[in-house]
From TrEMBL:
Taxonomic lineage from the root: Bacteria, Pseudomonadati, Pseudomonadota, Gammaproteobacteria, Pseudomonadales
Protein name: ATP synthase subunit c
Membrane-topology annotation of the record: Multi-pass membrane protein
Transmembrane segments annotated in the record for this chain: 6-31, 52-75
Listed SUPFAM superfamilies: F1F0 ATP synthase subunit C (SSF81333)
Family: Belongs to the ATPase C chain family.
Main location class: membrane
NCBIfam families assigned: ATP_synt_c, PRK06876.1
Function: Key component of the F(0) channel; it plays a direct role in translocation across the membrane. A homomeric c-ring of between 10-14 subunits forms the central stalk rotor element with the F(1) delta and epsilon subunits.
Presence of the UniProt keyword Cell wall biogenesis/degradation in the record: no
């Protein structure tokens, strides 16, 4: 029983950690593309920035869902 509990904790840590890693990579790519687009067409900067904030909000949902699943795994399954 103790081994199953330890495996659930490891799995929860992986879910939360990999979700955060994916989000960090996504934010890096998103910011880089925003800078590239703004450098090419400065007049489009406000529109690009608005779309970037929309995507950043959606991208923020990924680690929140991961935390929720991780907490479920820790408190219900372990």
């Amino acid at each position: 029983m103790e081994t199953a509990s330890a495996l659930v904790l490891i799995a929860a840590g992986l879910v939360i950690g990999l979700g955060a890693l994916g989000t960090a990579i996504g934010f890096g790519l998103l910011g880089g593309r925003l800078l590239e687009g703004t450098a090419r067409q400065p007049e489009m900067a406000p529109m690009l920035q608005g779309k970037m904030f929309l995507m950043a909000g959606l991208l923020d949902a990924v680690p929140m869902i991961g935390v929720g699943i991780g907490m479920y795994m820790i408190f219900v399954l372990a």
